[in-house]
Amino acid sequence: MRMIFIGPPGAGKGTQAARLVQRYGIPHISTGDMFRAAIKGGTPMGLAAKTVMDGGGLVGDDIVIGMVKERLEQDDAKGGFLLDGFPRTVVQAQALQELLADKGQALDAVALLEVPEELIVERIIHRRSDPSTGAIYHLKFNPPPAEIAERLVHRKDDTEVACRTRLGAYREQTAPLVPFYEDLGLLKRVDGVGSPDQITERLTSVLG
Ligand code: AP5
Ligand code: MG
After folding, report:
1. Which of 73, 87, 143, 205 has the greatest count of CB atoms below 10 A from its CB?
2. Cα 104 to averaged position of ligand 1 atoms, centre (Å)
């Protein structure tokens, strides 16, 4: 299974990806997580991405495409993958099509998680993540256990201001991927409002 999750910031891509990769036995490839790991590790790529990411803008296409290309060469991605947060521009989507075509591969599905903007800001500003396990929490909707409270991380781009910038980037640069994948007959629209269990059920029913 080769699939992609697209959707606005805070749509629940990471939450749902963690569940689906267990079901399908494929790796979860999140470009956002890869950049955050690079920043934490102080690599040159992390340093280059940090300011843009913290402000809520998009990292340059060449950097992202190079990083994903390398990742898809790894053994665990040969039989399939779930891409979360990539592609995010039409240039990235075209590069992915070429990359897969060169390997004689094709995408199976692109799931679009749809959540109205008015719900997004609240989801984002109260998100916390556990750096030890990668688990994603929400202070109201999915509260973390008290004993791990001290180690939880609040992302630098999870402020209201950066969130609005991210929504603008989504509207202008990522939303054009909807007609792009619709034209390829790959797009599956999934309502992202409801409980995480309901959304997992909707996703698995459209993805098979
Ligand atoms: P990235 O990490 O991909 O962030 P994003 O797309 O903004 O998405 P998020 O991770 O914020 O949200 P999500 O959809 O995963 O939601 P989650 O499940 O966590 O990218 C970050 C940055 O990296 C970008 O801004 C850019 O700078 C750079 N970058 C990355 N990829 C790039 C690329 N390809 N090109 C260029 N730059 C790139 O859920 C959110 C919250 O909601 C959580 O608190 C969760 O608990 C809660 N929640 C989840 N589901 C529900 C539900 N059903 N009901 C209520 N609450 C819920
Ligand atoms: Mg995410």
Report:
1. 87
2. 30
